[in-house]
Amino acid sequence: MRYLTFALGKGRLAQETLELFEKVGITCEEMKEKGSRKLIFVNEELKLRFFLAKGPDVPTYVEYGAADIGVVGKDTILEEGRKVHEVLDLGFGACKMCVCGFRESAPLLVHHELIRVATKYPNIAKDYFYNQKHQTVEIIKLNGSIELAPIVGLSEVIVDIVETGSTLRENGLEVLEEVCPLSARMIVNPVSMRLESERIKNLLMRLRAQVQI
Ligand code: PRP
Q1: Where are the beta strands (DSSP E) in 54-109?
Q2: Which of 39, 41, 70, 121 lies 20 to 30 A from 128 at CA?
Q3: Is the pTM higher than 0.85?
Q4: Host H or E run for residue 149
């Protein structure tokens, strides 16, 4: 039996994924060792391997088959546009992709004005404005603290993730339009899906039952 390899998005997502996996009997004791610099962790008994990667790299590892399975946010899947199968909504990490700004900017969206949109997700923003809303905009890519953009006058609106809404509230911004709901998803390499279909389907069945509880 060959190893099934999992790529997990670093951070809270990986933590929640491991907790979910434990509930269906998949453990990786090695991964719990604090302060370890190891990059890859093995469960010899179940022939499973796990590694942590930056979120946007997870779909890349899965597309190329370096990982059979990945767990990452729907935002990253949409933004990266890799050839992977999305097989399961894990439910956690729920939030929304939204167009946000000052309330006064709302008419600019209604009237399809040529505005600037700052975002960490240029592909998602492009798809939303060009293909769904049919509004021509200028998209400006940023790497974080996106809420700053309308405050300092870099852009009229932003496309960003809203979870609790507190970052917006504390900065006088609002959700102006909702783009799509987001949560953690499981993705699978299309070739692995065929070659390891028994093991992967079995895993999916157990996870699905757990997620539905
Ligand atoms: C994310 C997102 C928002 C914030 C939303 O940023 O980009 O800024 O969380 O959460 P809230 O609705 O609960 O306030 P993150 O903390 O990941 O950092 P970033 O600004 O560097 O992207």
Answers
A1: 69-73, 85-89, 95-101
A2: 70
A3: yes
A4: helix 148-152
